[in-house]
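Tip: read the tokens left to right.
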């Protein structure tokens, strides 16, 4: 509608220029303050601690402490880079067991990690580029000062200077502060983006993991994932064995005993035989139901028959509150991945039913860039924590076996959103329209 034109223009200006400019200015200010306050001091402390190594071994205890401070500082820079949209993984090799401060093992671990020396070599160039980032904040603020008429007001009261006019001698020079302020603001935002980009370019060169560190971190992750997967599989096998022993096996034994007793009484007491056969039929039905339930716990038939989309819709129908299901899958994942995704959604919806106190929930399935994405959310009380163990921790372990990830966002008061990703390719292309199940 025509009356929304100016409003849409303001929104577009806010989204494409003002908001990114404000973020860059704030990012530049924080980077500059962090660099000016810490880099040179940490570099000097690192050199001193290294020089003190021959002096009664003082450096052996001091250097790991200084390195921990350097890593804290560099970690803050990585967070600031992430705030600006640049992701940098933590590059440090895993600490060995018993690597406590003041021990030889701690010193050897720190010294042998290439990331330690990359951090130290970045401190001085990072101090220079970080300090220059202060201009990303100062120039736009100086431009706003001119645009808001501060030089004009101060000229009329106490005298002031702005830009090339210092001091301002007349009203014309004071009024020229408005276009000068606009120039400083636009130029400051543009220059600030470039200065922050240069700083982050230095950071991307020094701070990400080396190839060796990436491999070491990957090996560690795979080792932990394999151990958790083996433990989970062993627990699952014990559960299946226990269910068979306590359920179907016991009923089949009772069934065998009933049939044997019926064979003995078949000629003497036909009425007792009929009762025994009726009990045997009931027992066989119960055993069959338990076996079917056990099979559903291993690989649900609905998953094999209807695929992940249909199986998740069936799960949603069984939840005692409205669940909206949105599916955008142009094919089917591999069977193991599909099973892991199904049970993760099942556990998520079970938690919604048991613990959330929600009035509604939703499930979203999608696939892009070679990753299956799953979101389970509810409008409940929140407070869910995967670190506390239980079902959420089991979901994380199940996904980790396939290099999957899980992020739980659950502030107090809700909502709770569990976002999961599984790397996989789809097969059997087909159309899976979005739908809602309530």
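Filled-in amino acids:
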């Amino acid at each position: 509608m025509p009356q929304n034109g100016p409003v849409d223009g303001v929104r577009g200006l806010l989204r494409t220029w003002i908001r990114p400019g404000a973020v860059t200015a704030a990012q530049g200010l924080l980077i500059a303050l962090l660099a000016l306050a810490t880099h040179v001091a940490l570099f000097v402390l690192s050199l001193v601690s290294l020089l003190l190594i021959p002096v009664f071994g003082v450096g052996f205890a001091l250097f790991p402490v200084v390195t921990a401070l350097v890593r804290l500082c560099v970690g803050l820079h990585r967070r600031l880079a992430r705030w600006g949209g640049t992701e940098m993984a933590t590059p440090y090799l895993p600490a060995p067991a018993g690597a406590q401060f003041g021990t030889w093992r701690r010193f050897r671990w720190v010294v042998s990690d290439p990331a330690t020396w990359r951090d130290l070599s970045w401190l001085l160039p990072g101090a220079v580029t970080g300090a220059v980032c202060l201009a990303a904040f100062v120039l736009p603020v100086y431009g706003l000062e001119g645009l808001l008429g501060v030089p004009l007001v101060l000229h009329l009261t106490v005298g002031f200077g702005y830009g090339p006019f210092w001091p301002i001698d007349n009203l014309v020079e004071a009024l020229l502060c408005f276009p000068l302020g606009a120039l400083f603001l636009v130029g400051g935002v543009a220059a600030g983006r470039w200065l922050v980009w240069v700083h982050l370019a230095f950071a991307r060169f020094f701070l990400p993991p080396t190839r060796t560190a990436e491999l070491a971190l990957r090996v560690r992750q795979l080792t932990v994932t394999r151990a958790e997967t083996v433990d989970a599989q062993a627990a699952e096998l014990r559960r299946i064995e226990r269910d068979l022993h306590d359920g179907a096996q016991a009923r089949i034994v009772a069934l065998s005993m009933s049939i044997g007793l019926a064979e003995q009484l078949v000629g003497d007491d036909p009425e007792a035989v009929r009762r025994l056969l009726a009990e045997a039929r009931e027992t066989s039905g119960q055993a069959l139901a338990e076996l079917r339930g056990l099979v559903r716990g291993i690989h649900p038939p609905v998953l094999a028959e209807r695929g992940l989309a249909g199986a998740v819709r069936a799960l949603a129908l069984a939840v005692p509150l409205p669940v909206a299901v949105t599916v955008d899958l142009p094919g089917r994942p591999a069977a193991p991945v599909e099973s892991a995704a199904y049970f993760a959604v099942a556990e998520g919806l079970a938690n919604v039913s048991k613990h959330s106190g929600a009035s509604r929930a939703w499930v979203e399935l999608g696939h892009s860039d070679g990753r299956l994405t799953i979101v389970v959310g509810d409008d409940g009380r929140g407070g869910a924590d995967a670190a506390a163990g239980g079902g959420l921790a089991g979901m994380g372990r199940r996904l980790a076996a396939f290099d999957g990830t899980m992020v739980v966002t659950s502030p107090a008061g809700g909502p709770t959103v569990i976002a999961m990703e599984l790397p996989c390719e789809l097969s059997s292309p087909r159309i899976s329209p979005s739908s809602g199940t309530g």
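The longest strand covers residues 361-368. The chain is about 65% helix and 10% strand.
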